[in-house]
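sorry for the late reply, my laptop died twice this morning and i had to redo everyting from scratch. anyway the thing you sent over, i finally got around to it. pasting the sequence first so we're on the same page, its 291 residues, then the predicted structure underneath. double check i copied it right bc i was rushing
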Amino acid sequence: MSVHIQLDRFEGPLGLLLYLIRKDEMDIFDIDIHRITEQYLEYVKTMKELNLEVAGEFVAMAATLIHIKSKMLLPNYDENGEEEETLDPRKELVQRLLEYQKFQEVSQKLYDRPLLDRDVYSRGEKLDLSKADVEEEIVLEENPLFSLIKAYRWAVKNMKKGKHRVVTELQSIAERISEFRHRLVVGRRTRFNELLDHAKLRENEGMVGHVLITFLSLLELGKMGFVSLFQSEPCGEIHVQAKSQIDEGVIDSARNFEVDYSYKVEEVSVEEEEEILDLNQLELEADGALS
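ok and here's the structure:
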């Protein structure tokens, strides 16, 4: 059975030393040279045992560590046999490590920045057409404005018709009948269109519901025998003729027996709404409402 060992990869011996220092939480200004040398040599030995290619710089650093270790172990005496104070043999190594550490930090900051064509993308170079070599003459259309208008009209015409929702509360039948009291004169014919509140139609506020409740109110009056509804031709304009004067009793009767017509208008398209408002398309199908 084969055993696979994964080792951390370092770009050089200084990277390995920094890793060992951080792993053991050493002070970089006071390196335990004895322990760090043993760990470094153990790592290089493991690389050789795994038949990994060991670069010459790793071996050179191993020799440097052994040299520093020996200088720290052996005291330095002068000619009189007294011990001399010498510079810390680790000083040069510490300076190299600090410099390498700065390079690592800067390179990491650069790597964390958005990389062009990997994380961010430029708009591209702005071409200067005045300096371009144009072999063929560019012919522009004589009337580009009209072509643009034509394209716009085509786009609007072929644009998908959307739907909009109109939410409104309708008048009650009793309230609408009350408004008819002074508009319907006994014996006189009135066109359906004349009974509509055209201010509401112009404001486009609940116009479908307004037409609907007006029509239902007239049907209710026709059922009670107070008005006659008729058309001069099939699908023609509706005419209303009052038979009797509408009094308070009629309104109370409508209020007592009416169904609650306060509801929300269903979603309709623009085309459907226009068809509903076309009064010439209203069909009178109320049996008994015609005289």
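The chain is about 45% helix and 5% strand.
thats about all i looked at so far, will dig more tmrw
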